[in-house]
């Protein structure tokens, strides 16, 4: 592809340990490059298996200018296709989600089975070969119930590395046997990278997230050591060691795994929750009485899972919260949050939706405001890249470094 000298120069002069230059957040040209180099080339988290629990259930996702149709087939496998009829290109499924027996084009009724094969096309003549007109597949993988797609012709091969590392962490929480208790979509008036950068640090948490910090140890996500906090940090470290030993004995791994610089970058860690916490709720107690999988005790900490470039997830004993970030334009981003509980949990008996969602609804609203502040600030003539904290913003740097490296690899910078 032909790339302007300015974009290549921006990539090459990026200073490590500093935020990105303003065009990375505001330029529509760079946004188009992001879609081509990042969102069309990498594994992108877009859905979860409880979105499509039964054969014929589907969801549609708008990603980098493409509509992707994700469906459960008759063999209970997860399939993904371009949501485009092979006749004259009509959009096949026009709702966000639904259920079908077969996939029927609303224009001329070309009919495909759930595996994408064309089964019926009237008035096409005896020489017409249905086998040459199946739906075009999109690469899809499920990791512990988290669904990823890749629009590239050849997807990154290292998804297998992430699977091998993460399944021991994720599978005990049994996401595939959960149900969606709530879903909230919000639009942030900011660039997708600002959304991700904000997620990758908790420097801002104490001042901005009173609901979230009820259950989170303030030392759990980076802190500058000082004589004043030495005792608290030492106590936190002892708690981590003690709880890790307990979890390991229960076959619940907790040790940090970090491969954020991989093409399919990811990181995970299980940490204790504060106040003898059980879950990320306003009282740090479980939101659902029906625990996940085969869990028999509630205080199993919080397992966090981050993926490059667009997701983060929190797994607890009683519920799971998943987040997917979908860029819409240089200054507009969709953040989709889903709360999952055990499929047999009964609303109003085992859980209350308002209590289940209170912490992250508040946190998402607060984060949206912060992202929008940053987007507006990046438009100022006074903006210039500022230094990251080496204690609290290391993961922001790793996200930006991954992004710049992937962009550079694409354009040859």
UniProtKB/TrEMBL annotation:
Gene Ontology molecular functions: 2 iron, 2 sulfur cluster binding; dioxygenase activity; iron ion binding
Magnesium recorded as keyword: no
Gene3D superfamilies for the chain: Naphthalene 1,2-dioxygenase Alpha Subunit, Chain A, domain 1, Rieske [2Fe-2S] iron-sulphur domain
UniProt keyword annotations, A-Z: 2Fe-2S, Dioxygenase, Iron, Iron-sulfur, Metal-binding, Oxidoreductase
Superkingdom of origin organism: Bacteria
Required co-factors: Fe cation
Domain Rieske: 44-149
Keyword Metal-binding: yes
Entry-linked PANTHER family: CHOLINE MONOOXYGENASE, CHLOROPLASTIC
Similarity comment: Belongs to the bacterial ring-hydroxylating dioxygenase alpha subunit family.
Record-given protein name: Aromatic ring-hydroxylating dioxygenase subunit alpha
Source species of the chain: Trinickia dinghuensis
């Amino acid at each position: 592809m032909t790339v302007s000298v300015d974009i290549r120069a921006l990539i090459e002069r990026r200073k490590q340990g500093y935020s990105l230059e303003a065009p990375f957040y505001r330029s529509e040209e760079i946004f188009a490059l992001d879609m081509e180099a990042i969102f069309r080339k990498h594994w992108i988290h877009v859905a979860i298996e409880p979105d499509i629990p039964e054969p014929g259930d589907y969801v549609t996702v708008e990603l980098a200018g493409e509509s992707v149709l994700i469906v459960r087939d008759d063999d209970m496998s997860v399939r993904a296709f371009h949501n485009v009829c092979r006749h004259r290109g009509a959009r096949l499924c026009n709702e966000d989600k639904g259920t079908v027996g077969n996939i029927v084009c609303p224009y001329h009724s070309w009919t495909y089975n759930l595996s994408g094969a064309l089964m019926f096309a009237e008035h096409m003549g005896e020489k017409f070969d249905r086998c040459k007109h199946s739906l075009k597949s999109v690469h899809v993988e499920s990791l512990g119930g988290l669904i990823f797609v890749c629009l590239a012709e050849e997807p990154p091969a290292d998804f297998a590395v992430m699977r091998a590392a993460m399944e021991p962490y994720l599978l005990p929480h049994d996401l595939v046997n959960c149900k969606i208790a709530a879903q909230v979509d919000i639009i942030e008036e900011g660039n997708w990278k600002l959304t991700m950068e904000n997620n990758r640090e908790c420097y801002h948490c104490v001042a901005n997230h009173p609901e979230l910090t009820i259950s989170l140890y303030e030392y759990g996500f980076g802190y500058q050591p000082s004589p004043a906090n030495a005792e608290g940090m030492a106590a936190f470290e002892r708690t981590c060691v003690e709880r890790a030993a307990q979890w390991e004995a229960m076959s619940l791994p907790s040790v940090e795994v970090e491969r954020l610089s991989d093409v399919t970058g990811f990181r995970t860690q299980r940490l204790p929750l504060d106040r003898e916490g059980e879950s990320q709720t306003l009282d740090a107690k479980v939101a659902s009485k029906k625990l996940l999988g085969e869990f028999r005790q509630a205080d199993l900490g919080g397992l966090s899972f981050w993926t490059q470039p667009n997701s983060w997830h929190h797994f607890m004993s009683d519920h799971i919260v998943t987040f997917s970030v979908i860029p819409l334009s240089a200054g507009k981003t969709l953040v989709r949050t889903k709360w999952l509980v055990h499929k047999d949990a009964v609303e109003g008996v085992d859980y209350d939706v308002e209590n289940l969602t209170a912490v992250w609804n508040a946190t998402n609203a607060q984060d949206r405001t912060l992202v929008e502040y940053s987007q507006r600030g990046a438009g100022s003539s006074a903006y210039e890249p500022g230094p990251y904290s080496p204690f609290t913003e290391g993961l922001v740097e790793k996200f930006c470094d991954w992004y710049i490296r992937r962009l550079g690899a694409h354009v040859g910078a």
